[in-house]
Amino acid sequence: MPKRNFTLSYDTNIPRQVGLAGSSAIVTATVKCLMRFFNITENDLPKPKRASFILDVEISELYIQAGLQDRVIQVYEGLVDMDFDKELIDKQGKKKHF
Q1: Cβ proximity of 29 and 50 under 8 Å
Q2: For the residues of 60-73, what is the DSSP string, one character each?
Q3: How many CA atoms lie within 13 A of 93 on its CB side?
Q4: Are residues 50 and 31 in contact, defined by beta-carbon separation less than 8 angstroms?
Q5: Could you give the C-alpha distances from 19 to 2, 49, 69, in angstroms and in order?
Q6: What one-character DSSP code corresponds to residue 14?
Q7: Spatial distance between the Cα atoms of 81 and 38, rounded to a whole number of angstroms
Q8: What residues contact 97, with CB distance under 8 A and at least 6 apart?
Q9: In whole angstroms, what is the distance from residue 23 CA to residue 16 CA?
Q10: Distances from the Cα of 18 to the Cα of 15, 21, 25, 92, angstroms
C-alpha cells in the first residue's frame, strides 16, 4: 500500500455493548473509509473476509468480546440469512466466515 497520510476521528454517544450501534459500527465504518482511501476493492477484500477481519480487529486490538453477526449485517448493509449449524460450518471449513 502506498505511504499516504490520513486523519481519522469520530465522535459517538453510543453506549458500550449495544450491539449493532456500538464499536462494531465504528470499526466497520473505519474499514470502509480506509478501503476507499487506499482504493481497496470488493475483489481485494470480499465481504465475508471483511466481516471476519473486522471481528479480528475488535478481538485482537480492542480486546472486545464479540461475535460475527453484527459485522456481517454491517458489511452487507441489510438483511442476511446466516446459518450457524455446527455440522455445516465444519463441512465448509469456515470457522471465521459464514
Answers
A1: no
A2: HTS-----HHHHHH
A3: 0
A4: yes
A5: 34, 20, 9
A6: P
A7: 30
A8: 48, 49, 51, 52
A9: 7
A10: 6, 6, 10, 31
Q: Which residue has the cell 449495544?
A: 18
Of 10, 8, 2, 92, nearest to 48 by C-alpha is 92
Catalytic positions are 70
Which amino acid, one-letter code, is at 48? P
What the block records as the C-alpha cell of 48 is 465475508
**30-76, pLDDT tens digit by residue?**
999 999 999 999 999 999 899 889 989 988 998 887 777 878 888 88
The model's pTM:
0.73
Query: What is the Cα 49 distance to its own chain's centre?
Result: 8
